[in-house]
Amino acid sequence: MDLDLAQVRAFVLTAQELHFGRAAEALSISQQALSKRIARLESGLGAELFHRGGHGVRLTEVGRRFLDPARRALAAAERAVAAVRDERRPLRVDVWGHLYAPMRTLAQVAAHAPEPAMELGHGRDLPAVAAALLHGDVDAAFGRVHPPLPEGLTHRLVRLEPVDAVLGADHPLAGEAALRPGQLAQSVLWTPGALDRLDFLHRFAERFGVREHAEGPNLGAEHFLAGLSGDVRRFALMPADVPLPRIPGIRSVPLVDPTPLYAWSLLWRGDGGRDGGGDGGRTDGGSREGAGHPSLDPLLEAFAAEAGRTRWLEYDPARDWLPEPGTSTTP
Predict the structure, then answer these.
(1) pTM attached to this predicted model
(2) pLDDT tens across 141-153, in order?
């Protein structure tokens, strides 16, 4: 049969959302029109792609087998159109992890790379950005990658950034020149949201025995760090290069023996599979095959050049700590 790409796109979006209403909204069509497209695709294939019932929408075994080739077919169609148009639109890049100021790193790379031109956007979190990539809404994304990561995406580690403890002036450890992470075990980890949804902070707390935490809304660094005053035992974790807002009495204290490292990765949609790095920990792989936008290669090259200049990818397991890839159970 000849595949209708509109039907294939309807299937892929519904498989991603597992919800007909959300998929229809993403396509800007009615739910009835979406259901008709999928029904026509199923009729042509001679097989059901979804289980529909009281337990929600689930892929059938045939649907699971069809999903990855369907994504590759959509990506190939996009490349074919781009080749004819000789597209030179800006590279659309979403960032997430806004409290940790990902724009610092992108700006530093862009300063040494006149190409590519980038159009920057802000994703809510990794699942939202991954969905935008798979939908074709953006070309690449920048932030911290951790499992589970949907099939069809590729990522490459581009920076490992040391993390400091940020303390209020009345914290018992505020006067220390440096701290070992274990010294914070009796303190309260202050988090910008629920701890079980913040992969890096969750793993830090588990690894170094921090049993207490408190959470507040993520309304920006100044508002978040002002919340340290709510309890003299509170501390926050921030990348060492993030400029602290001018809040009286807070200070950043380096963490050593080991130094926690925050892993920044570039993420994109690709046919070549993923590099298997889990949270971006210790690999620098990732296939570019099928990635789409022609400006993605120059961006990766710019990251590699900046890492060479600034030693962004240095990692010593005797000195540094990274969460183990592939072990996370959090979103």
Answers:
(1) 0.68
(2) 999 998 878 888 9
